[in-house]
Design brief:
- This protein is an alpha/beta fold.
- It has a single domain, classed as Alpha-Beta Barrel (TIM Barrel).
- The protein is built from eight helices and eight strands.
- An eight-stranded parallel beta barrel has the order 1-2-3-4-5-6-7-8, surrounded by six helices.
- Helix 5 links the parallel strand 6 (143-147) and strand 7.
């Protein structure tokens, strides 16, 4: 059974939308009978340079919003370190940075920052990046996020070509933690889990469903 992390991908400056999504996630966790602190949600942060658009990146405001769950942050940025530092200071438990923006030396530095903050560092790969590019990072992390869409906006279609990347990681690092993000719905979730993913990130499928709580339950049952 895979873990399912509801995602928060809101426009830059729209703290109201972020707050509403956080409250919706709290309601999902409560209805599922799983205490929030045993669960995790996923923030998408896009800088408008590495990505098509900019998204909300104000972790300092979470002290006021007070989400009742742990969270990780997917930093889609040309220069990820400043954002990583701010999110770690705000309490992020996992920070995800892209191979395409974080050479091995920088990723190693970010991994140390995360460890010092009691968090984990995760290496993300864009759909077009060969999975073999991740091999030099194996000594620095066993945590990976495979992006099944192009970085940026939510609601994109799942790219099946990334499933082989998941399978490669599972074969090469049996203890790897493998997240898959983008276009996740019950059908693609099953394919991802069969390939070896243990964590699913879902936004549109859950929150555009007539019954988000029920859709979350469907996903966590896969």
């Amino acid at each position: 059974m895979a873990k399912v992390l509801p995602s928060i991908n809101c426009h830059i400056g729209d703290t109201g939308a972020v707050t509403a999504r956080i409250r919706a996630i709290e309601a999902i966790f409560k209805k599922a009978g799983r205490p929030g602190w045993e669960q995790m949600a996923h923030f998408d942060v896009a800088d408008g340079i590495f990505t098509f658009h900019k998204s909300w990146d104000e972790p300092e405001k979470l002290a006021e919003i007070r989400p009742k769950f742990h969270y990780e942050v997917h930093v889609m940025a040309e220069n990820p370190r400043p954002s990583v530092e701010r999110w770690l200071a705000a309490g992020a438990k996992r920070v995800i940075v892209h191979l395409e923006a974080a050479p091995l030396e920088l990723f190693a530095e970010i991994a140390v920052l995360a460890e010092d903050a009691g968090a984990e560092a995760v290496l993300a790969l864009n759909p077009e990046t060969p999975i073999t590019d991740a091999v030099p990072y194996f000594n620095s992390t066993s945590n990976f996020l495979i992006l099944a869409v192009h970085p940026g906006l939510s609601g994109q279609k799942f790219l099946p070509l990334v499933l082989e990347k998941v399978s490669f990681l599972r074969r090469e690092l049996q203890n790897a933690k493998i997240e898959i993000d983008g276009g996740i719905n019950p059908k693609t979730a099953r394919a991802a889990v069969q390939a070896g993913a243990d964590t699913l990130i879902s936004g549109s499928d859950i929150f555009e469903s007539p019954d988000p709580e029920a859709e979350y339950e469907v996903l966590i049952s896969i």
